[in-house]
Amino acid sequence: MNRPAPDLLKPRKTPQQSRSTVTIEAIHTATIQVLLADGVGRLTTTRVAERAGVSVGTMYQYYPHKQALLFAIVERQLDLIVRAMLEAAERLEGRDLRTVSDGLATAWLDAKMADLVSSRAIYGIAAEFDLAELMSRAKNLMVEAISPLLRAVPDARFADPDVTAFMLAALLGGTVRVVMEVGSSEDDLERLRQELPRACLGYLTMAACPYVRQRNDRQLLGRP
Amino acid sequence: MNRPAPDLLKPRKTPQQSRSTVTIEAIHTATIQVLLADGVGRLTTTRVAERAGVSVGTMYQYYPHKQALLFAIVERQLDLIVRAMLEAAERLEGRDLRTVSDGLATAWLDAKMADLVSSRAIYGIAAEFDLAELMSRAKNLMVEAISPLLRAVPDARFADPDVTAFMLAALLGGTVRVVMEVGSSEDDLERLRQELPRACLGYLTMAACPYVRQRNDRQLLGRP
DNA sequence: ACCTGAACACCGTTCAAGT
DNA sequence: ACCTGAACACCGTTCAAGT
User: Fold this and answer.
1) Could you report the per-residue pLDDT of A12-52, keeping only the tens digit for each?
2) Which of A160, A196, B156, B199 is least crowded, fewest Cβ atoms below 10 Å from its Cβ?
3) Residue B130 to residues A3, A116, A182, B9, Cα–Cα distance (Å)
4) Residue A147, exposed/middle/buried by CB under 10 A (0-12, 13-18, 19+)?
5) pTM of the entire predicted model
6) Does B122 touch chain A if contact means CB atoms closer than 8 Å?
């Protein structure tokens, strides 16, 4: 509903002189500062401009709306997380199911928990404007990384690695999101940390072909 | 951040005469209509009041903010879902692990998919204002329903049913949410429908004590 | 008890005028 | 090429005046 054309979300002007690059940077960091200090609800264009030391008009030369300010921040954060997952995927290529499962789950948790404040802030922003496309892109990247990883697991075969990767990405992303949004005491986060890897392994085991499941399960019995 | 006191979200005035009850109802349905017709972004107090056939001032006698309008809708929707889950829990009491797992997953999916439009609209609203408390309450109710259910499963023992219930609720809620937010083609929803029950069972099997896992797994091999 | 709607404060966005 | 800030349109909320 009411989604702006994608290119409108990008800075509308590319810097030609060095001073404008500085301006863009200043606006960007000012947005983060205001976001952390006052929350999304109190983030106004005037406040950001003031903090950045420029006039509102200047801001509108580089960011076409208020949304674009927030968009830039979310984009950077999603980038960090996607990169962490791609690195994990590379590192885990060819390892066994349990290692892959654990590796993905903890990589995801680490990436999200690394900057709790930013993560929470971003979930706070989420529906303030339309993040669907941005999230969708990030998710596709994850699926594209996980899918071949699943194919390369030596001790399991998946009927449809693409579907499994899709579901796994949704499971990881969604579970963490809900826990963080719901308020999430330290206890809750600790539980999440313990249980997410199990959920991940549980699903993957279930999605793998049956004989694998049995084999893998016997291994698990070895180490309670 | 910047959460209004809970009681401010409720109607500030209880109807004394029958005409005000009518007014409240009119405002409520007008909000839904505007939401569905124009989206959250275009929902304004004037528009709602106009559609309800009252003046803005009247609206503010019963709903202290714009947020309260949306709050009322989300509350009703969450209520429906929670109720569906409680009923499912009652129905599943004492059944075996697989039945319980499947029952919960499909009850959840059915409740969410029953009114796709509303569900999406609600996720769209979600961060527009602070739903944390509302969501938290709904989640607690679910955990309280699931936890005893897990205890009553005859063919499995859980080390900590509360933790498992907590995680299961997060898993169900989050996964569906992410898939719906990301845009979700019909294909994606179909995949979700197929995979969520497996994820649910996978996690529960993993969370159950090992000997159960093995037993349950043999059963599964019987019916591929 | 309930309703009205002009009035107020505030915010996002623009644009004519500057360097 | 880049910046300024008054001006405009719009929206959430209030309150004195009505029935």
Assistant:
1) 666 667 777 899 999 999 999 998 888 888 999 999 999 99
2) A160
3) 22, 18, 10, 11
4) buried
5) 0.81
6) no
